[in-house]
Amino acid sequence: MIRRVAFNLFAWGIVLAVAFPLFWMLVTSVKPQFELFRRPPTFLPETWTLEHYIRLIQDTPFLTYFKNSIILSTATTLVVVAISTLGAYSLVRFKYRGRESLAFLVLFTYLLPSVVLIIPLYLMLVSMGLSNTIFSLVIAYTTFALPYALWLLRSFMAGIPEDLESAALVDGASRMGAFVDVILPQLLPGIISTALFTFILSWNEYLYALVLVNSDSARPLTTGVMNMLVSSFNIEWSLLMAASVMMSVPLIIVFAFLQSYLTRGFGAGGVKG
């Protein structure tokens, strides 16, 4: 009994330690400007206000950055999931020389520090005339998200019984038909997990966006908000907290929506209709 109480207290302590910065960010975003630097600080605002959100939307290019991040993260997720799904299927189901070496080479590229690839990527994108565009960031984000996504889906693919696909082929299905009707339903939890990981990684990425894009029309939220609200002489704390809250909302929505689908797909496609 004592151990259980101690464990529960420890668990709740961890939860509170993690959640408190998020709570403080939300509370700060709805405090009037004069309350931000009051000593001692107030735990809850005496006057609640949405003025910081209104200023953020009306007086700054925040919505442009928000749109860019949505387009960038969604496009990167679609590209990475499509390529990694087919790549994982190839690495698990097909027999060819150098297959394992190729798999470990892909993993090795994920282990490389991101900064190592920035200069080669920048030079390549400039030579192709794609620099300073959202498309250039999609290419860059794919380079570091794809290796991990491929290995993640490879482990999911290896857990799918090959007999299910063999039975579909014996029944007259084509290779692509068996892949779509049998493999994909079984792989759905892995695909959703990979998509969630890729979306969050793309949404939060800062280094590539900082180096590869310097135009407001193509900046995502990470670099746009920092460039807009943080300088050497001043930090707009109220707007920064409001922007941080709004930046967190899509991730919360995406995770909450996809979480309900994570367990779906197990056993689907394994029953012959």
From TrEMBL:
<keyword id="KW-0472">Membrane</keyword>
<feature type="transmembrane region" description="Helical">
    <location>
        <begin position="182"/>
        <end position="203"/>
    </location>
</feature>
<protein>
    <submittedName>
        <fullName>Multiple sugar transport system permease protein</fullName>
    </submittedName>
</protein>
<keyword id="KW-0813">Transport</keyword>
<feature type="transmembrane region" description="Helical">
    <location>
        <begin position="70"/>
        <end position="92"/>
    </location>
</feature>
<feature type="transmembrane region" description="Helical">
    <location>
        <begin position="104"/>
        <end position="128"/>
    </location>
</feature>
<feature type="transmembrane region" description="Helical">
    <location>
        <begin position="134"/>
        <end position="153"/>
    </location>
</feature>
<keyword id="KW-1133">Transmembrane helix</keyword>
<feature type="transmembrane region" description="Helical">
    <location>
        <begin position="237"/>
        <end position="258"/>
    </location>
</feature>
<dbReference type="Pfam" id="PF00528">
    <property type="entry name" value="BPD_transp_1"/>
</dbReference>
<feature type="transmembrane region" description="Helical">
    <location>
        <begin position="7"/>
        <end position="27"/>
    </location>
</feature>
<dbReference type="InterPro" id="IPR000515">
    <property type="entry name" value="MetI-like"/>
</dbReference>
<dbReference type="GO" id="GO:0055085">
    <property type="term" value="P:transmembrane transport"/>
</dbReference>
<feature type="domain" description="ABC transmembrane type-1">
    <location>
        <begin position="66"/>
        <end position="258"/>
    </location>
</feature>
<dbReference type="InterPro" id="IPR050901">
    <property type="entry name" value="BP-dep_ABC_trans_perm"/>
</dbReference>
<keyword id="KW-1003">Cell membrane</keyword>
<keyword id="KW-0762">Sugar transport</keyword>
<dbReference type="GO" id="GO:0005886">
    <property type="term" value="C:plasma membrane"/>
</dbReference>
<keyword id="KW-0812">Transmembrane</keyword>
<comment type="similarity">
    <text>Belongs to the binding-protein-dependent transport system permease family.</text>
</comment>
<dbReference type="InterPro" id="IPR035906">
    <property type="entry name" value="MetI-like_sf"/>
</dbReference>
